[in-house]
Design a protein that fits this description.
This protein is α/β, with parallel strands linked by helices. It has a single domain, classed as Rossmann fold. The protein is about 35% helix and about 25% strand. The protein has 13 helices and 15 strands. The longest helix is centred in the first third of the chain and has 15 residues. The two termini are about 25 Å apart. The relative contact order is 0.17. The model has no long low-confidence stretch (mean pLDDT about 90).
């Protein structure tokens, strides 16, 4: 899909759309509201899920999501490494629109992650995101995608970021953005768990761990308002505003073509877990490639994807295959088929 490069086109078009859809107060808040305060970026925790200085990525394939999540986290050393006991935790899923998985995070992944967090003694659990501007409000999409049912039945706190405050965070070394306007809850909780879907994206090439953070960025800083032809680089630079403590990739169903709303679906039936966003993204990209993937993903090294390249330049995680180690298991799945998939993923990581 060709990208329209005019920022003015997007600003005028989105303003007209929001004017027709939203109340004046909501329109003003989305486009013009200022952050409450400037803060230093204190969410710069280092990845603790390593072995011999290599970032670990676990891959678990199966049908039982609770077992997959539990084993995937345990392969990295368990939630105990995050010292969850008595801590507040924000789960940041992908709630981009009203459609079911894989447009949005599988509600069962959220449900069983909540269960694991409670088993580890989390004191307060939040589910937070902000949908695509054209699809707001976020709560409506949580309801239609099935995530709201989990929020209600599990009795956790839902935080639609568009209804809450924002803070300004500096982006050292940014070429396209010098500051990020971020949901204040990102800095108010003790732990952040990033739970994206593995999927292709018509504008940003793909959407996994790095891209999922855009749901915590103020509407006025969406990439099409800044430099539409540099979506990927802007996504990477904005990620310098925070560091998730853990990334859990929903690979139960994925988009391998088109996206992020509708596209060609594959069903890898897997969960991948890592403390490193770049490691998570290159593994997720390798999964897309293993299941076909569209040409712009299939015919390019995962390390040459623009989001990844800029994230490496920004020192947001690992920078080469030798800094990554995969640990995997496949409860209840045909092991020879799983081993072949792991071989394909490893090959894509090394080329």
């Amino acid at each position: 899909m060709p990208i329209i490069k005019s920022r003015l086109f997007y600003k005028i078009g989105m303003s007209i759309f929001l004017f027709l859809k939203l109340r004046w107060r909501d329109l003003f808040r989305l486009l013009f509201e200022k952050p409450k305060r400037k803060i230093l970026n204190h969410n710069l925790d280092q990845n603790i899920f390593k072995e011999e200085n290599m970032a670990l990525v676990s891959i678990v394939q199966g049908k039982d999501i609770y077992t997959m999540l539990k084993e995937g986290i345990e392969l990295l050393g368990g939630l105990k490494k995050l010292n969850i006991q008595g801590k507040s935790v924000l789960i940041k899923p992908n709630i981009v629109n009203r459609y079911p998985s894989p447009a949005n995070t599988n509600p069962l992944v959220i449900k069983y992650l909540i269960k694991l967090l409670r088993e580890s003694g989390a004191s307060k659990i939040f589910i937070g995101d902000m949908s695509a501007i054209y699809a707001l409000p976020t709560k409506k999409n949580a309801v239609k995608s099935g995530i709201w049912e989990v929020i209600q039945t599990e009795n956790v706190t839902f935080v639609p970021f568009e209804d809450h405050g924002w803070v300004e965070v500096g982006i050292p070394g940014g070429r396209f953005v010098k500051r990020a306007i971020v949901s204040e809850i990102i800095y108010d909780v003790d732990r952040i768990i990033n739970v994206p879907v593995i999927k292709t994206h018509s504008y940003a090439n793909y959407s996994i761990a790095l891209k999922n953070f855009m749901g915590a960025i103020h509407a006025q800083q969406r990439p099409y308002f800044i430099a539409p032809e540099f979506w990927d680089e802007i996504v990477a630079e904005l990620n310098a505003a925070y560091t998730p403590h853990l990334n859990i990739l929903d690979g139960t169903k994925i988009f391998i073509k088109k996206g992020p709303t509708k596209g060609t679906i594959a069903s890898p039936d897997l969960i991948a877990v890592s403390g490193d966003r770049i490691a998570a993204d290159v593994v997720g990209l390798s999964v897309i490639k293993a299941f076909g993937g569209e040409e712009r993903i299939r015919n390019r090294s995962v390390w040459e994807q623009r989001q990844v390249k800029r994230a490496v330049e920004m020192s947001l995680g690992i920078s080469r295959p030798s800094e990554l180690k995969i640990v995997s298991t496949c409860p209840g799945i045909n092991k020879p088929i799983f081993d072949k998939l792991m071989e394909e993923i490893q090959n894509h990581l090394n080329t």
